[in-house]
Design a protein that fits this description.
Shape: globular
GO biological process, one term: defense response
Helix content: 25-40%
Keywords: Dioxygenase, Iron, Jasmonic acid signaling pathway, Metal-binding, Oxidoreductase, Plant defense, Vitamin C
Largest sheet: 8 strands, mixed
Number of strands: 14
Low-confidence stretches: 45-53
Strand content: 15-25%
Bound molecules: N-oxalylglycine, nickel (II) ion
Structural class: alpha+beta
CATH architecture: Sandwich
InterPro entries: DIOX_N, IPNS-like_FE2OG_OXY, IPNS-like_sf, Oxoglu/Fe-dep_dioxygenase_dom, Plant_2OG-oxidoreductases
Catalytic activity: jasmonate + 2-oxoglutarate + O2 = (1R,2R)-12-hydroxyjasmonate + succinate + CO2
Distance between the termini: 29 Å
Number of domains: 1
Protein name: Probable 2-oxoglutarate-dependent dioxygenase At3g111800
CATH topology: Jelly Rolls
């Protein structure tokens, strides 16, 4: 297969949505078992009409402000809340995370503006499956695959040597600056969270950062997702179920429209984002490094018929050519290593070729040991 090219002509979902269709093409219709259940037409933040039985459930919300203060008890309590969220959920929201709220708003807005630009402008950045960098509309190169109802922009931020701003949109004019500022703040936050996870795992506080290659060499990519409104939201998904292949994801959700759902037991829990919060989730590489003490969790995105939705997913990853394997400190006779060593470059080929496949990849490694 030619990995430089998409297997068939690309459909821009936003353009399709704007064309005024009232039913969606077959290519976007998911098999019945994958379709969203308990579907509510308006996925707004007011959940009073939500028929979902998990109406009141939400992922843990953790205020990080006491990590900085002198109060040891409050600090320990915060660490414990993070620990529990990592063990029990793999997903949590953080408040008082240190990133400027104004900057979060600007970042969301410049990307909304980008997606509002004419299609020809966006097409200048059309991506290919060799690096995925640029404007894209599918994940995976399987010919005839059922597609997700979203477009995206994907860019490399870290290491600096991979940061190529000429591949970033030149419009709106403030975009490159805003993304540089935002990226720096989010990378700092990622480093702080890796430290908390290291401590909670009983490792040196710089263990995970070092395993990722150290401050200068960690990987970081931004995927800006655009989910156009959809005339038949009950038949499709914005993103199919997947776990994030990388280390840690720092997600800035839309401030008006929800859509992210987290798999828990047999249910899909709709995340209700708090204003100015980030959503953090564990990726497959931390599942491997922690020898499955922390697990990456399957998630998906549903769409709706009323509103477009934008989200910024920052993937904080190991340097792509380092071998990632269970930490020796966490391997014992009773808990032997569950995963073979593998570089992230090798690892991410799977999702880049096959598209989102739930937790199939990390689970398939289990049987290789
Ligand atoms: C992703 C993702 C969730 C969202 O980009 O990997 O899961 O809410 N995004 O857009
Ligand atoms: Ni994801």
């Amino acid at each position: 297969m030619d990995s430089e090219k998409w297997p068939e002509p690309i459909i821009r979902v936003q353009a399709l949505a704007q064309s005024g269709i009232t039913s969606i093409p077959q290519r976007f219709i998911k098999p019945k078992f994958q379709r969203p259940t308990n579907f509510t037409t308006t996925q707004s933040f007011l959940h009073d009409h939500d028929e979902n039985s998990n109406n009141n459930l939400n992922i843990p919300i953790i205020d990080l402000q006491h990590l900085k203060g002198d109060d040891k008890k409050l600090r320990a309590e915060t660490l414990e809340r993070v620990s529990e969220a990592c063990r029990e959920w793999g997903f949590f929201q953080v408040l008082n995370h240190g990133v400027s709220h104004e900057l979060m708003k600007c970042a969301r807005n410049v990307w909304r503006e980008f997606f509002e630009l004419p299609i020809e402008v966006k097409e200048e950045y059309a991506n290919s499956p060799s690096t995925y960098e640029g404007y894209g509309s599918r994940l995976g190169v399987k010919k005839g695959a059922i597609l997700d109802w979203s477009d995206y922009f994907f860019l490399h931020y870290m290491p600096c040597s991979l940061r190529n701003q000429t591949k970033w949109p030149s419009l709106p004019t403030s975009l490159r600056n805003v993304i540089n500022e935002y990226g720096d703040e989010v990378v700092k936050l990622g480093g702080r969270i890796l430290q908390l996870l290291s401590i909670n795992l009983g490792l040196n506080d710089d263990f995970l950062l070092n395993a990722f290659g150290g401050e200068k060499d960690v990987g970081g990519c931004l995927r800006v997702n655009f989910y156009p409104k959809c005339p038949q939201p009950d038949l499709t998904l914005g993103i199919s179920p997947h776990s994030d292949p990388g280390g840690l994801t720092i997600l800035l959700p839309d401030d008006f429209v929800s859509g992210l759902q987290v798999h828990r037991g047999d249910d899909w829990i709709t995340v209700k984002p708090l204003p100015n919060a980030f959503i953090i989730n564990i990726g497959d590489q931390i599942q491997v490094l922690s020898n499955a003490i922390y697990k990456s969790i399957e998630h998906r995105v549903i769409v709706n018929s009323n509103k477009d939705r934008v989200s910024l997913a920052f993937f904080y990853n190991p340097r792509s050519d380092l071998l990632i394997e269970p930490a020796k400190e966490l391997v014992t006779k009773e808990t032997p290593p569950l995963y073979p060593p593998m570089t992230f470059d090798e690892y991410r080929l799977y999702i880049r070729t096959k598209g989102p496949c739930g937790k199939a990849q990390v689970d398939s490694l289990l049987s290789q040991k």
